Structures are given as structure tokens and as C-alpha cells.
Amino acid sequence: MPINPSLVKEFESITGKEQVLTEQADLQSYSYDAAVLTPVVPALVVAPTTQEQLCKTVKTAYDNGLPITVRGSGTNLSGSTIPQGDGMVILTNRLNKILEINEEDLYAVVEPGVVTAQFAAAVAAKGLFYPPDPGSQSVSTLGGNVAHNAGGLRGLKYGVTKDYIMGMEVVDYRGELIKTGSRTVKYVTGYNMAALMAASEGTLGVFSNMTIKLVPPPKASKAMLAEFDDVNKASEAVAGIIAGHIVPCTLEFLDQNCIRYVEADTRAGLPVDAAAILLIEVDGGHALLVEEDADKVMDVCRKCGSTNIRIARNAEEKLKIWEARRGALPALARARPTTVLEDATVPRSQIPAMIAAVNATAKKYSLEVGTFGHAGDGNLHPTFLCDRRNKEEFTRVEAAVDEIFDVALKLKGTLSGEHGIGKAKAKWMEKETNRATMEFNKNLRLALDPKLLFNAGNKFV
Amino acid sequence: MSESTPTSQPVSTALRNLADNLLKLDDLLISCMRCGFCLAVCPVYGATMKEADATRGKIALLEFLSRHMINDPEAVNDRLTRCLLCGSCQAVCPSGVKIMDIFLHARSIVREYLGLSATEKLIFRSLLGRPKLFNALLGMSAKFQGLFLREVDPALGTHKAPMLSSFIGDRHFPRLAGRSFHSRVASLDEAAGSSGLRVAFFPGCVSDKLFPEVAEATLKVLRKHGVGAFLPDGLACCGIPALSGGDMTAYHTMVAENLALLGDAGFDRLVTPCGTCAATIKEFWPKLADGYTEKDKAVIRDLQAKTIDITAFLCDVLKVELPAASAGKTRVTYHDSCHLRKSLGVFEQPRSILKSLPGHEYVEMAEAERCCGSGGSFTLKHYDLSKQIGKRKRDNVVAVDPDIVAAACPACMMQLMDMHSQHGDRVKVRHVVEMYADAL
Ligand SMILES: Cc1cc2nc3c(=O)[nH]c(=O)nc-3n(C[C@H](O)[C@H](O)[C@H](O)COP(=O)(O)OP(=O)(O)OC[C@H]3O[C@@H](n4cnc5c(N)ncnc54)[C@H](O)[C@@H]3O)c2cc1C
Ligand code: SF4
Ligand code: SF4
Prior knowledge:
By secondary structure, chain A is of the alpha+beta class.
């Protein structure tokens, strides 16, 4: 439905004509994100370039009852930036300034459209470290990371995005700027709204800037690859490492299917007969201590029956070890046209049960699947391969995914470890929680968004 | 995205044909998983931050056009041509989407529907496709250009063309060489030299007409290393300008002329100082040879194997011994041509050459691999956008404060010169092979 021309003019007077898109070809290009869902074309796209423009844009949209979808880079995998057909998209990618990097107090202040990897690089240039590293970091925005509480390879030791949010400013439905948190390490003066905003998926307001915690970088690291002939043994090794009080910065897992896809794609010489491989990296403040931790990790792996262990002796070998992990998604993505990347997460000890269930389900529905993921935190990415043009096959994928969610919940896990609920999993929310929780969520949302215009259809139906 | 919703408007037969032709690309289009990784590297998106300008947006629009979800080929074509064909996206695409194939085919399909504009037809069909005429015209305009070219920066040797600006914008471009390389060396047919090698020498249009010193340096280097050169009279353009403009007729004419001249000549390698020509011959000629005769196909396969840019030829074939780096006073930095780095994987060779030059100090700039914004007809059609992209490159160059910025592609050199001239920078733009030749 086209938007009233006088309203378009109003937006143009706020941001300038250039930043308001109404042409079909432009609108169509905001109808999708990285989720495999049906595209929906918005009626209008506005890209504010200052905080003031952002506030006015939100106010004007809200006053006029326009559904609002905030979009960073549109890389989320849950459809949380697929707009409403009669609504508008507010783009944050032109709000992309790093406002401050404070080397004394170890924090930075950023606008929401700053790209994650560019931020990490700017911080590294000052000798500091921003650990969250989602696979999409070269393109994802920090605003999108907060709204999805994005995780990454370093989650086990360093935590996820929410652990680095000290404070933020949020535009509420009236177009007013709300402040929460502070630049101090300790802060108890208000509600901890920054925590509420993490994983809010654009449903509670629009982040206008964020104060982000920084840490000193580790001084040394060691990477290892351990092969196992049984998923249970790999899982025991994971438990053993943690029980030995070592927290690797990365503890990644590839199952046999996934190893085979990577090997077929890269011919890197991976062990295609292994049931699983673990890729482990330990880091810390001193090379000797790191060395000691690495020895302990290898010891545990050996005791748990690892059939072969390699340790990287230099930077080149380290790159080589990580090649298998880096190659996982490309290998799966290239094997078939469509890649359905799932995110069900279970308690660490349930990984073998989960892998078994994933493979059994794939077999039942005659589907191809490969699983990789973050073994340290039980966050697995079973990835189904198909062709979205083949409706019959795609229906089987949807059925299989539904079954996998069921298993994850039975194993006391969760629907999503990091990709979010969005539109893709909204119908599942009540199953993971209960009716009362859903009502509570709705009341909370109505308080912050009385007309339910912020990303309606996201999080719950 | 299991289902698509076509628009309800009725569509014309021509439009249906267009959509059907695009559907032939469906198997390629479908492999885009919309991850957005291309947004991080696409120079056009970097400048405008509009999704429709990014690779992902262009691919989505083509898919929507083929499924009648949008019925505005003009608008899609407009987005499609806002592209440098730099290949940066394809180099990072995790899904292995054959993006360049999609874009080239789609351009020709959509252009066929829309028809070529008159200026484009003039350039592609009349000039680039007819090397003799092109040379004669350029010879004339080089003599008369003093009439409408105003000198802007004598140090860089760039000129401004106020009277031509409706066509080429406010571009500062190098004075059309008083004498093109071709007017001095029309043809060569030397036997293999002391190296035992005889190579076909493909100077490329931009070296020939705008930077004859680059072609001459290449020849000097070949001679110095005992390599015999074969240069037939009448080599045509490699075809990339026509290809990117979607004019397949002109493209095939150019390739055919070249094949006729290069087919039976007998040489070990085809050497060029132009990264763009090298990539076109190696990558696009074989891909677009479907309707060719078996003989032409064989020639193309042979050329695919033999074509090499001059820096890789020096380092990988001749294996010239490069002296160890000596920290000299002249600071030099290097810009990666997209075609060399992303299509051909050539990036170490030019750097090792530069690092070995006596009296020079090599400094690496930030984002050296990022596209400079020059891209065949892109720079003519979208000059403002090209300038915006070039500005980022220029800033990265200036940040390391070099005396010289070197490149191994004359098309990039043109853009770099323009950018530095526009900003009044005291930075010289040179080809790696020129600097190597100077040191011989
Ligand atoms: C190949 C691939 C790998 C990935 N790997 C990972 C991974 O390792 N870990 C992980 O966690 N995720 C991963 N993701 C998912 C995705 O990249 C992340 O969720 C990322 O945080 C999204 O950032 P974005 O800028 O693209 O946000 P978008 O997709 O544009 O938006 C995501 C959500 O954030 C909201 N939003 C954006 N900006 C604001 C704002 N300023 N205020 C309020 N709400 C806002 C949107 O409304 C939407 O709900 C991956 C995705 C892909 C395609
Ligand atoms: S990187 Fe490749 S798969 Fe990803 S959006 Fe771009 S073209 Fe599509
Ligand atoms: S070829 Fe270059 S300009 Fe064109 S879409 Fe890809 S990255 Fe962008």
C-alpha cells in the first residue's frame, strides 16, 4: 500500500530527500534478510543520518501509526528485519560513527550502524580488544548485534554481546531519548534496561548509541585439533576440559557429515572417517601459562580417547587448523542451493543426544544435514541443505526443523542460542516458556510500545 | 522464501520474454543465500549504503524481475549498471555464487530488452570494435586536444576537458599521448631470445593510447630479459567495455579480430601490463565462447593457459632475481587492481618487485585491495559515484604519505591520477613495470 505523499514529504523534511526511498526497486531490496522466508516489500524506507533525525523519524512514524522495522545490515537469520507490507523500514547503517574510544577507562561509545569488524579493528589499533565475533562480523552492525545479543566463537570464555553493553540511549515510541547505564563499571541507579534491550529484536525501541566495554587483549594463544571416533567421546572431552577448570576461548565442533562436506569442498586433508573433531584454542596473559593449559587440554582429549591430536606451532599452522571451521559454512552453502542454518542449543552434556536426534530426523525426512557449532556452550548449528524452489523438499525441511526444536526443548535446551526468534520461530515461543510468560511479555511490550508498531510479528505472534 | 508472490499487473510479451531469459540464470541466482557478506566489500554499497547498489540487492532484484515480482526492467538495469564488475563480491561470497557470470549475462539480457543508448553504440561498435579507425581518430584528436584541454596539474600530467564535460564529467585524465604506442611500434615479430621464450605482447587500449610509456617499459623489460616479442598489427580491444555495457555484438567482434591475429602465431605466453585485459582473456573469453568454432575455442583455451600479467611473468615465469629490500628515500605504496588480485590472485609479485627497487622504501596502505572505483564504462556513466569511491582510495594512499603510488593496471592508474589531481596531491602514479624498467 503506497504511503500518503504528504507523509513522505514530512519524512523528507526530516532527513533530506536523498535519505527517503520510495522507488519500487529500492523498496524491493529491503524485503528480505538472511532468513529463508517469503519476502515482504515495505511501503517506505528512511535512513536517518543523525540522532536528531532518528528521533523525529520514529516520532513521525509512530504518530501516524506506521509499523516500524529497524534494519542494520539485514544479516539476521530469523526474519526479524522482514518488514510489514504497509510499514516502513528505518535504516541505521548511516548512523555509523565511533564517537569515542576511551583507552583509560576501557570503553567506547558508538552509533548503532557501526560495523562490528570495523569497530573491533579500530579498538585493536588502540591496543584494546572487543571480543564478540559473530560469523557475520564483517558486515553486521553493532545495533543488530545488541538487538540479537549476538554470540561468536569466543563466547565460552569472553561472553556474548550483552556482556559488553555498559549503557545505551534508546529512542522510545514518542521519539524521546531514554538513557540507561553509564560509563562506570558499577551502576545501580536505574533499571537495567540495557539488559532488557539485548535480544529485544527491534520490538522495544530504537538504539541510538551504545557504550561498550573493552578489555585488554590476550598476550598469547595456542590452537589444537582433536579427532574422535565417537561423538560421545568428544563430548566427554568437552566436559573434562571444563571440569579441569580450563576455559578455552574457543571450543568448536564439527560432526562427520560436516567434515565430509568441508573436505569435499576444500580437499584440505581432513579426517573424513572421524565421527567428530574439536577445534580448541586457549589464550591468556602469559605464554607459559597458555602452554600449560594447552598441555592439559591435550591430556584430557587423549584420556577421553581422541584418536589424533595436532597442535599449531606457529601462526601458519594455526590458520591451517582453523581452516576446517572457517570452511564449514561455505562448504555446506555450496553443496546445495539453499542453506537452512539452525541454532538449537542444549546443555553441553546433551550434545551427543542432540547430534543423534538431528541425524535421525534428517534420515527420516531424507534430507542432507551437516552440524557444526560451539561445543563449549552447547550451541549447535544443524544445517539442512535443500533447494527452496522444490516445495515438496522444503516442506520436509520445515517438518524436520520443527522436530529438532522439540528435541532441543526436551533436552532442556532452547530454541535459539544466538540467531534469535524473529518471525521464523515466533510460533514456538510459548512452547519453550508458558502462557503466563507470553502474557507478561505482551504487557511489557504494550507499556513500551502501546500501538504495537515496533517490529510486530517478531518474538511472538 | 519458499513461495514468491508475483505482481498482479498484466505484463507484455516483451517483458515476459525478458523474464524468461532471466529465468535461465535461475540456477545461478538461487545459490545466493542473502548472507550479505558482499556488502562488506562492495565499493558501490560502501559509497551509497543502499541495498539495491550492493551485490545482494542486485541479485535479489534480478530474481524478482524473473519472477514478475517487479516489472520495471529500466529501474533494475539502473541498479545493475551501478557496478564496477570488480569481482570483490565474488571473492568473499561463502556460497560460491557465480556473480560475474550472472551480471554479465543479465546485462546483456536486459540491454537487449532496453536497447543500447546511441553513445554506447558509437563507442562499442564503431570505435573499440574497429581498431584502425579508433587509432586514426585518436591520432587526430591527440593533435587537436590542445584546443579543448586545459592543463590542470603539470606534475601529474593531467588535463581537464571543460568542453567535453557533459560526456566525461569533470574528470582529470592524462593527456592523450601525443603519439600512441601503436603509432611508434605498429607490429613486432621477433624470434625467441636468450631466455628461450617468445611471447605475444598485448599492450591493452589504455596503455596504448594514454600510457604509452607503460607499453614501452614492458617491451624494454622483455628485451632486457631476452624474451622475443610478437605484436600483430591491428589487435583490438580485449572486449571488456562492451561486455560490461551489455553489447555482446561488439564484444564478439573484438574477440574475433583478436583470435584471428593470435591464433596461429606460435608463442609461449601472452604478456600484458594490463590486469583488466589479462582477466578478460583468461576468465571471460572462455566463459562466453559457446557459439564459437572448435578452432576458436581451442585458441581461447590455449590463450587462457598462456595469458599472464607482466609482474607475474617476471616473478613466476622468468623467476628474475630480486635484490633484497634496501630502505631508500622514495616512498612507494601499491594499489591492488581488482582484476589482478581477485580474479588472478596476483598480489605478491608486484609487491616483491617494488620492495626490491633500489632507493625506494615500500609502505603498505590500508585497504590496498579495495577497488579504486574505475571500471570501464562505469566511470563514464556514474562519474560522481566513481569519484566518491575513488576518494576513499585516495585518502588511504595519502595517509601513508608516499611519493609514488604504483599499480599494475592502467585503468586503475587513470582513476588514481584523476583522484590525486582533483585533490592537488603531490603523489605520482606509476606502473610497477615502469619502475622496474627504470631500475634495469
Ligand atoms: C553467515 C552468517 C553467519 C552468522 N553468524 C552469527 C554468529 O556467529 N553469531 C550470531 O549471534 N549471529 C550470527 N549471524 C546472525 C546475524 O548476523 C546477527 O544476528 C547480527 O547481529 C545481525 O546484525 P545486523 O546488523 O545484520 O542486524 P539486522 O539483521 O539488520 O537486524 C537484526 C535485528 O536487530 C534489530 N535492530 C538493528 N539495529 C537496531 C537498532 N539500532 N535498534 C533496535 N533494533 C535494531 C532489527 O530490528 C532486527 O530485529 C550470522 C548470520 C549469517 C548470515
Ligand atoms: S555474499 Fe554471496 S551468498 Fe552472500 S548475499 Fe552476497 S552474493 Fe549472496
Ligand atoms: S562486482 Fe564490485 S561493484 Fe559490482 S556488485 Fe560486486 S563488489 Fe559491487
